[in-house]
Amino acid sequence: MRIDAHQHYWKIDRGDYGWLTPEIPVLHKDFLPSDLKPHLDAHRLDGTIVVQAAPTPEETDFLLSLADGDESIFGVVGFLDLTDDRHAAHYERFARHPKFVGFRIMIQDMPDAGAILAPSYVEALRSYAERGAAVDLLVKCDQLDPLIELVKQVPGLHGVIDHIAKPRIAEGLMAPWASQIEQLAEYPNLYCKLSGMVTEADHEHWKAEQFIPYVRHVLACFGPDRVMFGSDWPVCLLAAGYDEVVEVLERAQPDTWGDAEREKLFGLNAKTFYRL
Predict the structure, then answer these.
(1) CATH value of 3-273 in 3.40.50.1400, 3.60.20.30, 3.40.50.620, 3.20.20.140
(2) Which one of 11, 113, 128, 174 is most buried, by most CB atoms within 10 A?
(3) Domain residues of the chain, as ranges?
(4) Which residues, 6+ apart, have CB-to-CB distance to 215 below 8 Å?
(5) Neighbour order of strands in the sheet with 73-79
(6) pLDDT value at position 211?
(7) Whole-prediction pTM value?
(8) Burial class (CB within 10 angstroms; exposed 0-12, middle 13-18, buried 19+) of 76
(9) For residue 188, which of 230, 263, 129 has the smallest C-alpha distance?
C-alpha cells in the first residue's frame, strides 16, 4: 500500500481559509480529488491522508464529506482547538465517521507556543493520548523547545511532527533543529513526516541536494519505522510540482535503504500510525 500521508483539499468559496488570499494566485483556487488523481496514478499511490487547512470544525466536516465519495481518501486529519470547551464533543462527533483518523494542533499559528504548556492544554492532550488518538503537530523549528517540554509531560502522545518541523533550509541551518529532532525522536510514539520541505527552501532557486542532510538526519533519528512521505500538495506548488517533491525525497534516501525501507516510508508507516 502506497500512501501520500499529507495533502490538502479546499474550496475557496467556503470562506474559512483566512490565509488563502488572491495575493497567492497559485493556491487561490479550488483543489479537489480529481485534481490530484493524475499525480497519484503517476506515482502508483493508492490513496492519501487529507489534512485540515482551516481552523474550523466546519472544514473537517467538509473533508469528511469528500471522503464519503472518494475511495482515494484513506483518512481525514481534522481540526481541534484544545482551548475550546467543546473540543471533546467535536472529537466524539468526528470519530463516528469511519475515515476520521486524527486531528491536528496548529502550534505554528500560536503567537506564543508556550500556550501548549498550559495545564488545561496538557490535560486535554493526556486524555487523547490515553485513548490513542493520532495527533498531527504543525510546528516551526523555533517552537521546538515548548514541544519537547510538552512531550515530556505527555510521553504517551501518539503524534507525528509535520514537515520535519520546518527547519531553515533556505539558509542551510541545521542547529538547533538537529539536536531538538534527536530529543523528540527518543519518544517511541512520535513519528515524523518528510513533507513540506520545498516551501522551506528558496522557492525559485532550490536544489535537490540542499534537502539531503535534513532528510537523512530525520531518517537517522526516527529510523525506517517512524517516518512518512507527504507531498503537502497543493501548498508545495509554491515551490515545486508533485513530481519534484517525490524526486527530492527519493534522491535523499540513504544508499543503504532497500525496498523494505522505502515501502515503509511511502505508505506502510502511515497505515500503521493512522490505523488504517
Answers:
(1) 3.20.20.140
(2) 128
(3) 3-273
(4) 164, 194, 197, 249, 252, 253
(5) 3-7, 47-51, 73-79, 100-106, 134-138, 158-161, 190-194, 227-229
(6) 98
(7) 0.97
(8) buried
(9) 129
